[in-house]
Prior knowledge:
heterodimer; A: mainly alpha; 2 helices; elongated; B: mainly alpha; two-stranded antiparallel ribbon; 4 strands; 72% helix
Amino acid sequence: MENQEEVTKTSNIRILIRNFLIELVLYGVLVVGYFLVALRLLNDYLNDLFFSNLVLYAILALFLIVVQGVLLDGVTSFLLNQIKLDRLD
Amino acid sequence: MEFLVSGVVVNPILLAGIGFLVGIMGGFFGVGGGFIAGPLMYWLGVPMNFVVGTDLAHMTGKSIVAAKRHRMLGHVDVKLGLIMISGTIVGVELGARLIEMLEDSGKVDSVVGTAYVVILIIISAFTAWESLRALRMIRTEHLDAKEALGFKGVTKHAQKFKVPPMVSLPASGISSISIWPIIGVGLITGLLAGVLGVGGGFIRMPMLIYVLGIPTHVAIGTDLFEIVISAGYGTLTHAIKGNVDVMMALVMHTGAALGAQIGAVLTRFFTGPRIRLLFSVLPLIGVLMMVLRLTGGGAAH
């Protein structure tokens, strides 16, 4: 009985590691694309705003970080669900 | 990559790497990780005012991901978090005023530095002692890991304190508790956070467990929920003062988002006492960072 539990636990950990590796690759692709496109485009605009309107910059800063938080979580969860990985969580 | 707002050139992969590291710690222990991310950013050459503000901004985004993940796992007590935040805000304001008083007396660095080191060593030693005791209780008394707590003295007093208004916290398994100990925990952690200049997760998490009797996993998730609100507020105020490089925060957050997910899921494979035992090492890293700062070592400038 204990042996069976050990086997299930090991198998679960393997699935979890596999899922994380896939998630890591997906994140890697997303992050590189993000660096190349979105962040480079935003850099100049945010810099101008920082020196012209600090209050608007502050509101936009909080908005961007919250939106990115929700988006990064949502996009990867969506991708993982689409490829129907046998996730444990 | 050049970050125009702060005027520094930093490799974005390194920033994402720092984010990843503190993301794992945040998801696993329910701490913001500012006491580690801050010195690392400073070592990369980021000016100190931008270290504080930018770290808070990235912490907000990271904690959203980790808190959302913990909420899905049933580890966030929203009611507890909302009650506690009122005490936290008052505590942070009191802490900021205390710092102003210390600055006037010219002793701020030595007093805050010493307090920081002493408090962190006490937290570390106490958490290690308690978790080892709880692990022994699981073995010898065959207790369920969820119930095993090596120190319940303060929890009993807090739950016996029946001054109204009373609330129930079903998500934490508490049928009735006065709101005053909850606000008190927020006040003390806010005060310490305000004085020490940190988010306060590594103080709040043990206090939730040992003072209010919140289960470890719920304490982690609720702490993260609290960090979302307090770090979000901090981001706004620091950004208005010109201390936030949001580009840098966004880059750090790309790594932190992944780390936070990994950390949150990893909690499922550890029992409460084991998480607390691992947690006891964290404050010692903070002590090391502070000692380096006080002795003038390790800075990039």
